[in-house]
Write a structure and sequence with these properties.
The protein has about 450 residues and is α/β, with parallel strands linked by helices. Helix content is about 25%, strand content about 15%. The strands form 4 sheets. The protein has a 7-stranded mixed sheet, covered by helices on one side. The protein has a 4-stranded mixed sheet with strand order 3-13-12-10. It has a two-stranded antiparallel sheet with strand order 1-2. α5 packs across α11 and α7 runs parallel beside α8. The structure holds 2-acetamido-2-deoxy-beta-D-glucopyranose (6 copies).
Length: about 450
Amino acid sequence: MTYRRQISISSPMMQRWSKKKNHFPLLAFLFSVFIVASILYNERNIQQIHENNEQQQASITQESVLTSVSPTISGKEKKRRAIEGIDRFTTCESTRKYSGRKIERVDRTPDSEQRRGGLEGCDISSGKWVFDNASYPLYNESDCPYMSDQLACRKHGRTNLGYQNWRWQPHNCNLKRWNVTKMWEKLRGKRLMFVGDSLNRGQWISMVCLLQSVIPADKRSMSPNAPLTIFRAEEYNATVEFYWAPLLVESNSDDPVNHRLEDRIILPDSVLKHASQWESADILVFNTYLWWRQGPVKLLWSSEEHGVCEELDGLGAMELAMEAWADWVASKVNPLEKRVLFVTMSPTHLWSREWEPGSEGNCYNETTPIDMEGYWGTGSDLPTMQMVEKVVGKLSSKVSVLNITQLSEYRKDGHPSIYRKFWETLSPQQLSNPASFSDCIHWCLPGVPDVWNELLFHFL
Ligand SMILES: *[C@@H]1O[C@H](CO)[C@@H](O)[C@H](O)[C@H]1NC(C)=O
Ligand SMILES: *[C@@H]1O[C@H](CO)[C@@H](O)[C@H](O)[C@H]1NC(C)=O
Ligand SMILES: *[C@@H]1O[C@H](CO)[C@@H](O)[C@H](O)[C@H]1NC(C)=O
Ligand SMILES: *[C@@H]1O[C@H](CO)[C@@H](O)[C@H](O)[C@H]1NC(C)=O
Ligand SMILES: *[C@@H]1O[C@H](CO)[C@@H](O)[C@H](O)[C@H]1NC(C)=O
Ligand SMILES: *[C@@H]1O[C@H](CO)[C@@H](O)[C@H](O)[C@H]1NC(C)=O
């Protein structure tokens, strides 16, 4: 059976995009997508994922990719049996097309009780950004000792600081006002854990920065950077943790520092090793998305003993991983004891022509949000959203969705662009064209992720 990626050709968004594409057939931008290895103090290893039009095109006609890509196996690296675990040196002995194999499902009957949180009938993800420099930012960049150099835009030279001053205003109701004392009361005696990729790590740093100011310096601590990084507040006996699992299931990208981006291999039916890290947390905030957007993924089933991988497009592989995760949630989460939230796609702003037709840049130099209601760019993949909705919908009483996609779509001004630390040396050629190395994926702090955390606060 051949796996077909579900792209609805009739979707207006896809049509709009395909049309635009034809206007730029020779577009030769090579955008660097930075997904960064480690945070806090000793970040060194930065890896780049190159995304370009060709690649996007390729993932759209992924069937041809599936049949034309041949695996490259490094002769030096000996494969390991899946059963022994996976690391960044794991390779596939050989690769074949995806067989259509699925995860065996735990029975999940859809629940009528939708856990939307907040006010009945109010969709807090529909609204607008309001300039509010009286209440925002909620903290100062330089006051947060746990700030990441990847996100500290002011420190790295950004002078237009308007991105810090926007409040999210839902159309039909108000968000609960952020109150740090109340948040700590909710967290007393609990473990709040963020699990996912560098976007989720940004949200975790935002949460730590939002929370840390009221805890005296000698009553708080941060563990060293590791797969699991832990912020502790003694007087509340509470922790705010981040666990690196960019693909949710086990993969060869699980080393938080030296993670591998090329030739990604996942164990699609294995979340248990990761789950042993997160299962005792009281509040879990998951995300996963961008790591699935970098072309095909190799699958190594845990029963496979000969290192034979199957290859599948990113969306299909993400669905398998989400199903494995959903099985864990369905079988292990008692909603009376544990809160589980899933954060939807964080949009990227790699092509300014999407919000300003005719322009050729990206998020670099953007200083104001997009004010077109319902704006949706190609950084947010609709088929992915539909898949997430389907998987999470079946867990509705156990998982709340933090639907940050639409509100973040408006915030083309919120990315670091060139105002962050870059770990590799930038060439004179790059420096002469700042857009070429701009980070239009992560978000400056204080900024957009603070609002994601206000949504989280609203939901708790
Ligand atoms: C807020 O913005 C207004 C208009 O841009 C400006 O006049 C005012 O000084 C600002 N207030 C603060 C506290 O920055
Ligand atoms: C940020 O710093 C400014 C000046 O240093 C101060 O006036 C303001 O109250 C601080 N804001 C917060 C949220 O701490
Ligand atoms: C925050 O919550 C605490 C306790 O719940 C309350 O006493 C305090 O007034 C609130 N602060 C603000 C600024 O609303
Ligand atoms: C602190 O919280 C943990 C759970 O995170 C709990 O097991 C422990 O009993 C708590 N300790 C105190 C002193 O409340
Ligand atoms: C950035 O914006 C400024 C002010 O709007 C403008 O003068 C400058 O040319 C822009 N730079 C680029 C590279 O677009
Ligand atoms: C998130 O909100 C958008 C509209 O803003 C909606 O299209 C999408 O289905 C929602 N996603 C989920 C998983 O609920």
